[in-house]
Amino acid sequence: MNAPRDAGTIRVRMTRAGADLEVRALIEHPMETGRRKDETGAVVPARYIETVSCTLDGEAVLTADWGPGVARNPSLSFTIRNIPGPSVLRIGWRDNQGDRDDVAIGIPAT
Amino acid sequence: MRRRLLLGAAASSALAALPVRGAPPASAFAETGLAQALRACFGDRPLRETDHVQIDIAPVAEDGAIVPVQVRIDLPGARTLALFSDRNPVPLLARFHLSARLGTQVGTRIKLAESGTVVAVVDTGSELLVTRRPVAVTHGGCA
């Protein structure tokens, strides 16, 4: 379960607003609560993202602890103020089953 | 250290008053009621109502499985934001660790099991500030 997936699960949209950067990350993930039953009546095991970390040049900008109450295929939107210049935004997640993914995006200077 | 001792004393007296399942949850994301989830996150620290934290959420959610929510924090020095739903099996939805680089808004999409109240708590380090918004849910979100 720890192996990275073939295709990325994280899509990031970014919009410049002056020196600020608006970020919206969309993550492909089932966010199973562990209470849902499948068509055979079997309980679908809990599988949800526990942590999302967003860093800019290695510095934590936003870290989220999530539970099963975050919606399937979750989104996370936020703004980073005063982007200093060319930098690297990294967004990664880890779920309760140890699965994970991350993406690094180069941000050009304005 | 002194604070921890005081909290410990408060916890054990609360325990004595509760029936068998009174132990605090191992995780703040445990299946409990809202009051217990708040206690798991913040101990016995008091909550103060604020206008500096605003929850932007539709008053009526057609589909409780996907409810967009955005929180605007108009406060210097906010350290964490925690979001709760009083009617979900796991009341704590998400907790965000903020930073000085961050703008004023954080948004995500949550599940709401049924009509109830969404609660946002911001910890400034010295204070816990709370805002609440009622949401009517048309179809529950299997939360």
The average pLDDT of chain B is 85
Strand-pairing-aware structural class of chain A: mainly beta
How far from one another are the termini of chain B?
Answer: 38 Å
Question: What integer is the average pLDDT of chain A?
Answer: 92
Compose a concise summary of this entry:
With 110 residues, chain A is mostly beta strands. Chain A has strands spanning 10-17, 20-27, 49-56, 59-66, 75-80, 87-95, 100-107.
Give your account of this protein's structure.
The complex is a heterodimer of chains A (110) and B (143). Chain A starts with 9 loop residues before the first strand and ends with a strand. In chain A, the strands form two sheets. Chain A has a four-stranded antiparallel beta sheet, with no helix packed on it. Chain A has a three-stranded antiparallel beta sheet with strand order 1-2-5, with no helix packed on it. By secondary structure, chain A is an all-beta fold. Chain A contains no helices and seven strands. Chain A is elongated and about 55 Å long. In chain B, the strands form two sheets. In chain B, strands 1, 3, 5, 6, 8 and 9 form a six-stranded mixed beta sheet that branches. A three-stranded antiparallel beta sheet of chain B has the order 2-4-7, with no helix packed on it. Chain B is globular. The A-B interface holds A 20, 22, 24, 31, 33, 35-36, 56, 59-72, 74-82 and B 29, 65-68, 70, 85, 88-99, 101-111, 141-143. Strand 5 of chain A pairs antiparallel with strand 7 of chain B, so a sheet runs across the interface.
